[in-house]
Amino acid sequence: MNKACFLDRDGVINEEVNYLHEADKVVLIPGIAEGINRAHDAGYLVIVITNQAGVARGIFPEGDILLVHREIERQLALAGAKIDRFYYCPHHPDYTGECKCRKPSPGMILQAAADFDIDLKSSFMIGDRPSDVRAGENAGLAASYLVETGYGKEVVSRGEASGFTVMATPLDAINDFISRGQ
Ligand SMILES: [Mg+2]
Ligand SMILES: [Zn+2]
Fold it and tell me: Most buried residue, 7, 79, 158, 167, by most Cβ within 10 Å?
């Protein structure tokens, strides 16, 4: 079986921009390419798991998500880094009803596990919101980190990160998990 590093997108791979949907606003988080390469070198697939409710809300068309992902891939490639697969949830319960993919539901992680034959108990999640951490917990991952990039700093300062494993950056979280030797 395979193991994976699951990454939230906005605030983890790229700087948080509210309802980011324009490729020219993609700015990578410092150290993320290095972190992705570190995870790959340690034998982890790197998979993006992102809520994109802007589609359900009618803020941007679904095709914009793919353009943003292409731009993320382009910028990462300049640093020699690669994402194995992007999964996104375009839904929002108020507009499109309940779904099984929107974090904190584990649906996208479970789908990735089925697609890539991933052992969830050897895998980990990194996100900047409580819903990211909960999605990882709900999927039964070995660890789920909250990072202080994106919205994470605000989450921590509001005291909403109690009980979570908090790291300053995604690179720190990747190094922490890999150094555990799992
Ligand atoms: Mg985020
Ligand atoms: Zn969904």
Answer: 7
